[in-house]
Records
---
Amino acid sequence: MKESSLPVRNGQFNVDILQSGDGLPLLFLHGIGGLQWDPFLERLASSHRVIAPRMPGFGGSTGSETLSDIHDLVYFYLDLLDALDLRDFGIVGHSLGGMIAAELAAVQPERFTKVVLIAPLGLWDPEHPVLDFFSVAPAELSQAMYFDQKSEAAKALASTPQAKLPEVDPDTEEGKAVIDFYVERAKSMSTAAKYLWPIPNKGLSKRLHRLTQQTLLIWGADDGICPPAYGIDFMDTLPNATLHLVPEAAHMVCVEQPDAVAELVAGFVGEA
Amino acid sequence: MKLEMFHLAPYRGLPDDFREKYRSVWVDVPSHLFDPEKAHEYYNQTLDELVYAAEMGYDGICVNEHHQNAYGLMPSPNLMAAAMARQTKDVAIIVMGNSIALYDPPIRVAEEMAMLDCISGGRLVAGLPVGTSMDTTFAYGVNPSIIREKHAEAEELILRAWTEDEIFSFDGKYTQLRYVNIWPKPMQKPHPPVWVPGAGSIETWQQTVDKGFLYAYLSYSGFKRGQKVMGGFWKNAHAAGVDNPYQAGFLQLVCVGDSEQEVADKYGPHIEYFFNKMLHVYAGFADAPGYRTIETIKAGLMAQTSSFGRPGAEVASFEQLKEQGNVIAGTPKQVTEQLEYVIKDLHIGHLMILNQVGSMPHELALENIKRTATEVVPNLRHIWNDNPEYTDDWWPSGALVRDGAGAAV
């Protein structure tokens, strides 16, 4: 995997790009948890040229302060795709990244050959409210994100330093670690809040009909963030979509079942 | 020295098992616990207590804004202030304040405060806070990532609406208006004094100094923890050559009685109600992502200064709270001595005193107000008199200034 920083719009943004593999290009847009090169992306890179940008406001990617809403964000991504010289390719988005992928495909449907939305946000169904992931305690968040609470990822999330917040001394090593965690959380989650606060409906349902290309929806059967009922809501509006439920997985379906999800995606996008 | 009585208008009738049964007193406090018959009593008692505080000799009376909570029942403090303006003649009416990022367009706040200033005869203090995370981002749905920028823009618009002589247009990021021309304008010129309630954001220290506003630290952590925050404010102020204590205020819970035992017996349960129920805020609501600035997080300040959303915080007893300085309680002599220490140590010219706290019933609140106002307040007013350079430039021009005995000067 190769990591680089790409200036966009004359340096207004500097975007971390993780890339690996050969073949047809495949763009991956990460979710609210941020971007890590994980087994899912590694597996996809065995059959495709995977390009994974890190969203401004997350980690080292800069320029988020110039973006206010989903409209600004879409035009940033169009500039990014121009800078990467990407046309006629498949796009995969997870969670917030799925919402952005759907927005991009609605604006320029001809640019994307295939669209894969993995547990995308972007709709609001009062019968099945999306969990308020901005406020829930780490243990509850972990329940919603992961099927297997005994997994390393779930345990790490459940024990994040938020639980220790009240008695932080910035002059100790532990205190510094808590503050570092909080700084990154404040940066990335307030970035996510621009597009998802207070509920993640910013009008996508009015635009979904424009996604005329083949679209694959993938959902963890036990997703506690946006339950699989949203898969049905997307299916109701998308003209050309199929829905695939993955068992033994929650919102982080591509982390919990990397091989199964990568196989689904590669097979779907690979059909030219 | 100015002493003001602060009232939260708390919901005084939460059940005994509230803390065990429910996760938060704010945002998602159970709706079925609200009884409008009780609220009718509480609102009228609150107004009576504030007016009584004015009659007993306090310099000002304070109200503030909170939403969707049992901690303070004043979504619109301006309604309370309107009643107070009519029922009092000479005290400062301190609205502490309006969370201006919540109102579209924010000139609504400029108009209502101008009305209050005209009705009261120039006695209004205008508090222009950001507001808590619970109130602004969760109850009112404002995006935490933009709230400070939106607040700054609203503040600029309100000050211009109050002060500019000509009709102007405003092309903001959050508010666009072709014609800004509020009727009425405030009676005080150039505008009512602006007090900024802070909760420990380090940018606020610098901004209040730069703009010449009063900085008021509102917290229930008591004066011992208050030293850290007020110390931060004064460090910034001193760097700018500012040393006037009247530019700073502090909030303190106060209970007065004949003996320590009597005070503990009478007030203890209500103080415990306040700390164990009224501050019982779900941690996730207390700090929406982006609500605190990165600089404030880096300074490690939020953890040490926030009164709300402290998960796992132990149930506190009256004796502990007294020991930690969260409440100052005792005989008039003991309270006077401790408050004199607090005032001098924090270098403040305004002390806002909570005399009605938590579940404290009306009669006991009146007694506490009377004893504080008549047996403590008069002995503190002289404190900054020996320095003629210390003038209170943050006092409304229509409000009375009293001497130690409570007479007009």
---
Amino acid sequence: MDHKMSRSPWVIHYDGSSCNGCDIEVLASLTPLFDAERFGVVNTGNPKHADIFLVTGSVNAQNLPVVRQIYNQMLEPKCVVACGICACSGGVFRDAYNVIGGVDRAIPVDVYAPGCAIRPETVIDAIVEACGILDQKETVMRAGGDPLTVGGAATWDGGVELGEDGFVAAAGAGAGVDAGTADGAPAGKPAAPAAAKEAE
Amino acid sequence: MQKAIYTTVGIDELLPHVQALKGVGARFVQMHAERCVDDGSYRLVYTFINVRAAQEQIAQDGSYAIENLVVEGIDQYQEIPSISSYYPAVFPFENEAHDLFGLAITDMQIDFKGFFYQVSTAEPMSVITPEVKAAREKAMKVRAAAEAKARKAAAEKAAAAAAAGEGAADAAVAQPAAAAGSDAQHDDAAAKAALKAAELEAKLTAMDPEKAAKVRAALATKAARDKQNKEA
Amino acid sequence: MAHRSVIPFGPQHPVLPEPLHLDLVIEDDRVLEAIPQIGFVHRGLEKLTEKRDMHQFGYIAERICGICAVGHSCGYASACERMLDIEVPGRVQYIRTILHELSRIHSHLLWLGLLADAFGFEALFYRSWTLREQILKIFESTCGGRVILSINEIGGLKHDIEDSELAGIVQTLDAMRPDYEALVHTFLDDNSCGERLHGVGVISKKDALNLSMVGPFGRASGVDYDVRMFGDGAYAGLAAFEPIVATDGDCYARCQVRCAEVTQAMDIIKELVGKIPHDGIGGRTKLTPADGARGEVVIEQPRGEAYYYVRGNGTKNLDRFRVRTPTSQNLAGLTHALQGVLLANVPMIILTIDPCISCTER
């Protein structure tokens, strides 16, 4: 039987350290004018129910464990969409002292959706892109493979680790400025979707 | 039209002042800390608006006042009394001053003990980066030079005006030539002296303060000696 | 036998799109104490003044919050103008105020939608947000962005909004009115809404004054304070302005105040568009702030009084930028309102203060 998860992907949204601009646009994309629900998208508050994780805003020392926890609670196949430029790379706040960088400093990201603020059309576009990755993961899993070999997780560098005191342990990462650049992860570039396409 | 009043108070006078403001029904607007780049001390600014008084003032002349209490020159480890017993709404700001600036605020009604913000660097707002310090010093030098230049220009203008004024007077009153000549000569000399003094002053302000003080002292002794010589 | 426990609320919670964490100390079903914990959205942008110059920082100030973006950029620009002693043309003040009032309408409609969502009235949530899209359409057609408008400069505006466009705004608002009134009718008169809102989370006027509450949250408790009544800028051109006040101090009163404020904002825009002067739109200033020069401004954001403070140090960067947003002032009121309520009402009460966390933490 050809049943696909991507026919009705449930999404969960978490606001990293976004300015709200992207959050309200993510919500707006679900309301009747843009109507992401026509693709079967349902917004849920429970990580265990969700297939796609929409993260807005960059990560900092305090919300990094929260983002990781939500991600870990989600079941495979799952997909992460970084909504907005702050979630992709840190955006205008990249140089602020309490910003570690994009969401890929915490968890592997499958789709990078830019914009400040992100437009609802881009959100829908990103969700549809993520559906493709969900399907691939599902195919790989049915064949007994590892879902982590598909999408952003395949090329992820591991992000940053928090020290015991809650501060960022990696050298230079605490400054926020160096976190994105020093690791050599081109956070702003849509490297992961490209990799996903190659895998196809 | 809004205007702001800043009153500098000592750290011991803070609570009586706040109590007085509370007594007249002022509402608390905000509190924030700043760090002075020059001497590294901290400054706290408490802001209040007395809505009733503001409305009366607006009815009279259309203006209203934002009242600020400023506590200057605070040391990082100096104890600062909390005003939360008068205005409970201050708690986010006092905790913020503690977490981001490392200020020691005592007797807070809701005290998070440093867990209000969990930031990736300790006391981030208290850091003065070398770049900021350098930019500030450069700006001060540029400003001193600009001021000196302006003063020089003003002195030149004054000298020119003095000369022109003499000429005009000359034409109008038609004084005896000899007297006018001597006057003009005198004014000229005075203007030159003023110009020279202005130039010197300009140079001095552009110099290091220590060096300037030395030069000033030397000039003063020279002037005194000259005067003595003349009298002798 | 009463049993005491602590329930963590948030940071990821369906009722709020934003992360706010509360430790709720409860006894059986009643909340004894609520301790807010913030810091999940703290970026440290006040410190960014060191890395961005005065003009670049305008873009950062605008991104303090995506809902109140217009207010933040107006507040920052006017605080800088006050510091530099610049008088901006009347048209600039009028256009800023018109955009600010439009953002009040969009913010309140957004809030009404979230409120409906919080008590499980999905259709009403969608209706509010669909109506709100019309305001966003105005933003997009006049400024190019739906959320972040970037029209303000220190000393003026980047581009003018033509009179024909302003007339179009009034037309759109007039066309919205019947739909909006039907929406308000549901919120205020429908039984299923009223049941959830009446008598929940009451704060008396005395407490509201003592806790320095601001905005619709304070006005619902009878605090007769709205910064707009001081008549700064374009508000001076209004024939009359009266703050909208309710006296019950419960969730219903807060909903009432916000509903009425939308209509008030529509009236203000209509009046200002009729009176708008044609004296140019200014432009970016070339001045550098003097050492120690201060500028401060209070404005009425959709969520209440906001305070902006800038201090120059003689360089192109500011010495200090400070914004005190309405929600940070209302946190004390929130903890007070939550004392003694039923656990099931907690999300509703948190929502009715209309918390804006990214404003609070910056």
